[in-house]
Each structure stands twice: as C-alpha cells, then as structure tokens.
Amino acid sequence: MTDHQLPPSEMSLEWLRSMTLIRRFEERAGEQYTRAKVGGFLHLAIGEEATIVGAVAALRPTDYMIATYRSHGQALARGSEPGRVMAELFGRVDGLCRGRGGSMHMFDLERRFMGGFGIVGGNLPLAAGFGLTSDYLGNDEATLCQFGDGASNQGTFGETLNLAALWSLPVVFMVTNNQFGMGTSLERHSAQTNLQIKGEGFGVPGMQCDGMDVIDTWAVTSEAIRIAREERQPVLVEALNYRFRGHSIADPEDYRTEEEVLEWSKRDPLVTFGDRLVAEGVLNDEQREAIDLEAIEAVDAAVAFADASPEPEPSSLYDDVYVLSDQVRGWYSADHRGASLQKGEELS
Amino acid sequence: MAEMRYREALNQALAEELERDPNVFLMGQDISVFGGAFKVTEGLMDRFGEKRIRDTPISENTIVGLGVGSAMTGLRPVIELMTINFSLLALDQIINHAAHVRYMFGGQVSVPLVVRMPQGAGHQLGPTHSHSFEALYLHVPGLLVAVPTTAADAKGLLKTAIRDDNPVIFIEHETLYGQRGEVPDDPDFTVPFGLAAIRREGSDVTLIGISRMAQTAERAAEQLAADHGIEAEVIDPRTLRPLDLDTILESVAKTNRCVIVEEGWPHGGVGANLAALIQEQGFDDLDAPVGRVTGVDAPMPYAKSLEQISFPHEEQVIEATLALFGDRKRASRG
Ligand SMILES: Cc1ncc(C[n+]2csc(CCOP(=O)(O)OP(=O)(O)O)c2C)c(N)n1
Fold it and tell me: What's the pLDDT tens digit per position in B294-318?
C-alpha cells in the first residue's frame, strides 16, 4: 500500500464495489467454464482488479479504453451489464457481441470499451488509431491501452510507441506487468525487466504504479492521462501486479511456486483496500459484507440472464461480415456447402 | 472525357474524395514530400497539408492498425503501402483486425478503410518485390478486393472504395501506372463494386482476366479472332469481392467455354476459385473443362529471360484457349 490519502468515500466505495463485482464475476465465470457453459479459452483477471478499476477510474466516459483477451473486468468497470458479458461467454445472442467474440473479444461501443483482442500486441496500433482520431478531430478525448508484459516484446510495441510520440497522440500505454507471459516469467522473456523505461528510446516516458493498489493505479494513471490529454505526450505506465489464477483455466502452473502465489495473495487488492476502508471508518464490516452480497447477487442474475438468452440463429451466421450495400449487384460471400450464394447476391 | 494516365486518375480520385469529405485522409511511406513511390499522391500535400497527407515511418503493420483504429472511431483513412509485397508485414492488422473487427464485435463498429498498393512482375525486382496477391486477400471474408485495369476504373473504383463502409484492399498494378485512358469528366463519376466490365464481346469462349491480365486477355482475343476465327468474350471482373458472378455465368452460358487468366500462383489462385464457382453454378453450360493460365508455381526470378516466362502473355492464353476446342479449331489454324 502506498501512502495516498483515501479519495472521497463515495468514490472509494464505488471502487470497492467494482473490484468486488469483477472478482465475483470471474470466479463464477471459471465455475461456469468447468460446467462447460463457456467454451474456448477463459483468461481470468483475479488478482488484477485494482489495475483495472484504478485505470478505468482515471478515464472520462468519452475516453477510449482498449485491452486484451483478459478483459471481462474492463467491460464491467466501464459499466457493461454483467448479464451481457456473461451471455457473451455463453455464446448467446444477448452477449455484448451477440456471441461472435466470446471471452477474448468483448466490446461495448456505447461505453467506449473498444475491445477485447486475441492477438498479443495487436491492440496497440488500434489504440494509436483512436488517438489519431481524437487528434484529427481536435477534441480532448484520450485513449488508455492495456496490454501484458509479454506484449511489450512485439514489434507493434516499438512501432506504435514511436508513432504515438512522433505524432503527439493522446494515448496512455499501460503494460500490466503480472510477471508472466503465459508460463514465461518476465526475466526469461524481456532483456529489460524495468518495463517502465522500455518506451524511452521511442520518445515515450515511463511511470510506474502499484497495480495491486487501486488508489496508486488511479493516481498514476490520472497523471499519465492528463499528460497525454493536455500535453499531447503519450506515456507508458507499468502497473505491477499479479494474477492469482493460471494464465487461462487450463494451466497447471508449473512455472511458479505455491509460496510465491501465497506471498502475492497477501497483497490481494480487494482485501487490502477493504481493510483500509474499514480501518479508516468509511465502511463497517456489515456494509462490507453487503457489498459482497450485492456483487454475488448481480453475478447470479448475470448467469440467469445468460442462461435464458437464446443461442444465435444459424441464419444469422453471415450477419455483419460486411456492411452490405443495395447498390451492389455482385455477391459478397459464397457458401459452398449448399453450392448457393450468400447475402449480397439477392440484392442484385 | 479526358485522357490521362492511370496514376493521374488515381490522383484525381484521391483529390476529389479529400475535397468531398474532411474525414478522408491519407497515410503511407513517402507519400507527402516525395509524392509516393509511384507518384500517385504527387501534389496532394501542397493542396491538403500534412495533417491529411501523412508520411509514416516504415511500420506497415502498425500503419494499417492506426488505420483500423481511426476507421473504427469515425475517420476514413486511405493507406498507401509502397507495394503489395510489404503488405505481408501487415497481415495481422489486415486479417485479424480490419477484416474481423466488425464481425467479432457483433456489428457494433465498421472499418471504412482503404489499403492501396501496387503489385505485379515484369520489372526484374526478383522474388521479394514481384508478388501478385489478389488471391490471398480474396480468401478473407470481411475484405473487399478491387483490381482496376484501366484509368477510368482506377478512378471510379477508388472513389467507390473510399465511400464504402468495408475495408477495401485496392490493388493497383505497377505496369499500368503510366498507361493512358479516357476518364469521364463528371466529378461524381464512380464505378460500382460488383459489376464486371465486358471488354470485348464474343460468342465462342469467355476469357476472364484479373488485374493487368484483363489486358493480356484482350490482346489474346484479338489474335484468336484474326488467326483462328475464334470470337472471345473478355471479362474484367474489376472487383473480386463483391464478385459479379452473374455476368460471368451469363457469358459462359453463351460461349460454353472459359479460360481464366491471372498473374499470381496457380494453387489456391483466383482462377482455381472461379473455376470451382463456374463448375458448381454452370456445369451444364460447359463444353470443356474451365481453363486456367497463371503465373508459374515458383518465386519470381530476376533474370529477364526467366521472368518473362514466369507470368502469362498472349501466347499462353491463346494456347490454353485452343486446347478447349480440341482438334476442330486447331485444324483451322493452317
Ligand atoms: C500474436 C500472438 N502470439 C501468441 C499468442 C498466445 N498467447 C496468448 S496470451 C499469451 C501471453 C501473453 O502474456 P502477456 O502479454 O504478459 O499478458 P497476460 O496474459 O499476462 O495478461 C500468449 C503467448 C497470441 N494470442 N497472440
């Protein structure tokens, strides 16, 4: 814990609620996975809640937020309905992306949560693209782009930081250093382990925050966002944190010791922040319990909502591959299974 | 009508669209001060300024990614990649992102992005600088693919591409930049996607030429008529997605024979795909197997003597066409 003062009570309580919702949501998502309600990969953010909530708290609703395949929490923190996030995990029509994206590809345009990307390092150029739009239109919107320590080795990291600095784009790059890229520890994948300085050669100054501490994450990200927004200077923020669960559900975790996990879990962001709120009289134990119950109820409701939501219609398979134009006589897609043509052709 | 070069027609299209829509902007390597590696963007920087004509570092994947991001948030970027060979470095952003963002996010956003780049062999640039990749991009659902061969189509299709709400792979041809052609004066002239052009009418065989090969097919058709009495109908699809299959099938129904000519490799080529579609949809109309003339199945060699036999010329098109007629027409040759 850093020595920041507590923010105003309502704000602190909001953060605790948000972190608790993410924790309970992720636990339940993992459980639903083991019941085969969720397919594919499932990357949980348990342990990383403070990094998510603190970073999102630094943004305005009009700012853009973009993250990785580990981003149920980002959607929730931006205000997406838990039921729609869960329905996406279940592959149902009421999912945020109508069952097209799944766990790795969440997206909520209305809340300017710009995804959810399955390609490590693929989201950095897009973030700079959002920044370019803000710059081009001359508004004061900023972009926050989260990615992992592993992603900092991709070519897009250097390319994007260079371009963002060269063009003075209002983007904050946040490398969430949870110590591992899958099963490869930081010192085994990056020659430079002090990630906050990894952007300096590209003209992007670095900052560091304690990603296990929601207040510090919020304070540092807020300053970085201010610099990006006001000084048109992109910033790299390294958030030091730890994921308590495996990389994805199917991860035997042979690359780390139980003692290490135990050591980090003493810094559980939910526990430490909750304890502090109680210690400083913002919250009593009963109210703390109530916040937890509220989150559990919200997640129960999310599962019920997702369960009740129908599977997508097979006839919707080709929806949104293209923006179809009624001016076009040719066909856009061919379905060879029926040796017949699909969507677009009947518009001729 | 005004006569102009293919590159000038492209330049006009860009200028008109930049003029029409303030959210249209260009990005690419050496496109502003230098005027573009093939001078397509010459003069645009003086007219529209650096904000809208943006030189980028040599970072293909990231440039396309910036294009995708800015397109998702309301701009209409037109990206120039120096040549199609370098688009291989941007495949992640083109395929995993540009093509799929709309679908995987359930239609919440669209990506009105144009990636322009030239392709083609014939300039002795060897294996890394001579690719033809229309088949590669045609493969990807979510992308539209335009392959203009005339100055008028270059202009009309580029304007349509910029106005379209889908990501468009716009493939120019290095050999065509200097060619002249008639281009309509009307500033609202566009060429719709999904509408093939019939370059020559004929009743004996349908020749489909892709990209520059539409011209090779046309020249072959003239020789077929003069030397063999075969009247070929020549079709230039102009866009491969959306594809005007109707025009192709109608032609094949009339001629009962078809040869597809492309510059790229044979395996998984445009011709392979078209041949499959034609036999699936028009099997009863065919009197002979669909013929294909393609680039050879090897990297592009440097030596002029080898390079010239590595991509199709009129002779191969004529030979492949005659093969469809068997002995009857061959006999009439002498
Ligand atoms: C381009 C690419 N390569 C490999 C993968 C497989 N993969 C998924 S997550 C991951 C590790 C990424 O680690 P990091 O960037 O540190 O993020 P974290 O998962 O720790 O949040 C890998 C290798 C991928 N999705 N994309």
Answer: 999 999 999 999 999 999 999 999 9
Question: Which residue in chain B has the smallest CA separation from A335?
Answer: B277
Which CATH architecture does the domain made up of A9-316 adopt?
A: 3-Layer(aba) Sandwich (3.40)
ipTM over 0.85: yes
What is the whole-number distance in angstroms between the Cα of residue A132 and the centre of ligand 1?
26
H or E, element range at A144: strand A143-148
The secondary structure element, H or E, covering residue A272 is: helix A269-279
Cα separation, A140 vs B85, whole angstroms: 37
B131 is catalytic: no
Let me know if residue B95 belongs to a domain: yes
- Give the distance from residue B48's alpha carbon to the nearest chain A alpha carbon, in angstroms: 14
Query: Phi and psi (nearest 5°) for B218?
Result: -65, -45
Same domain, B162 and B209: no
| Residue after which a domain boundary falls, among B121, B156, B183 | B183
pLDDT tens per residue, range A111-152: 999 999 999 999 999 999 999 999 999 999 999 999 999 999
Which residue in the set B57, B104, B245 is minimally distant from A163, CB to CB? B57
Q: Is residue B45 part of a domain?
A: yes
What residues pair up with B260 in beta bridges, in sequence order? B208, B292
Calpha distance A72→A104 (Å, rounded): 8
Q: What CATH number does the domain containing B311 carry?
A: 3.40.50.920
Q: CA A302, A303, A305: angle at the middle one, nearest 5?
A: 65
Give the chain B residue whose CA is nearest to the CA of A62.
B73
Orientation of helix A285-308 relative to helix A9-34, angle to 10°: 40
Q: How far apart are CA B240 and CA A331, in angstroms?
A: 9
Instruction: Please judge whether A128 and B101 are an interchain contact, meaning their C-beta atoms are less than 8 angstroms apart.
Output: no
Say yes or no for a CB contact (<8 Å) between B108 and A107: yes
Residue A329 at interface with chain B, using a CB cutoff of 8 Å: yes
Range of the domain at B203: 197-328
Question: What's this model's pTM, rounded to 2 decimal places?
Answer: 0.95
Size of the A and B interface in Cβ pairs below 8 Å = 179
B129 classed as catalytic = yes
Which ranges constitute the DSSP H helices of B21-150? 44-48, 60-72, 91, 101-104, 134-138
Alpha-carbon gap, residue B273 to B141, rounded angstroms: 14
- DSSP secondary structure string for all residues of B289-304: PPEEE---SSPPPSSH
